[in-house]
Amino acid sequence: MRYIYDGVQVDRPGKSLDYSLVLDYDEYKKTEDIRPILARDMLKSLETIKSVKKIQDFDVEKFKDDFEFFFKQNLWI
């Protein structure tokens, strides 16, 4: 699959998912440590993936668990 993204031509396999996460600037601006908020937002965004597309041979829950483990190990949550 070929498409144009931000003026750049990109080739993607037909079975792929591309998404972006829009963060609430005002919420992040109010805190000195954005890590817990960023971790929360990233984990929540993975729920969106599950509702949008079933990715063959990819365990979204396991992927989310790995992220959560990383955030806990690094004291983000």
In a few lines, what is going on in this structure?
The chain has 77 residues and is mostly helical.
Helix and strand arrangement:
Elements: E1 2-5, E2 8-11, H1 25-29, H2 35-52, H3 60-73
Antiparallel strand pairs: 1-2
The biggest beta sheet is recorded as: 2 strands, antiparallel
Which blocks of ≥5 consecutive residues have pLDDT under 50? 1-5
- Fraction of residues in H or I helices: 40-55%
Number of strands: 2
Report how far apart the termini are. 38 Å
* Global Rg: 15 Å
Largest sheet, spatial ordering of strands:
1-2
Find the structural class using helix and strand composition: mainly alpha
The portion of residues forming beta strands comes to: 5-15%
Oligomer type:
single chain
N-to-C SSE series? Answer: EEHHH
Looking at the structure, what is the overall shape? globular
Specify the number of helices.
Answer: 3
- Average pLDDT, to the nearest integer? 83
Number of domains: 1
Structure description:
- Mean pLDDT is 83; it is low at 1-5.
- The chain has 77 residues and is mostly helical.
- The chain has 3 helices and 2 strands.
- β1 (2-5) and β2 (8-11) form a beta hairpin.
- α2 (35-52) runs antiparallel to α3 (60-73).
- It starts with a strand and ends with a helix.
Q: What labels would you give this structure?
A:
10% strand; 77 residues; mainly alpha; single chain; globular; disordered N terminus
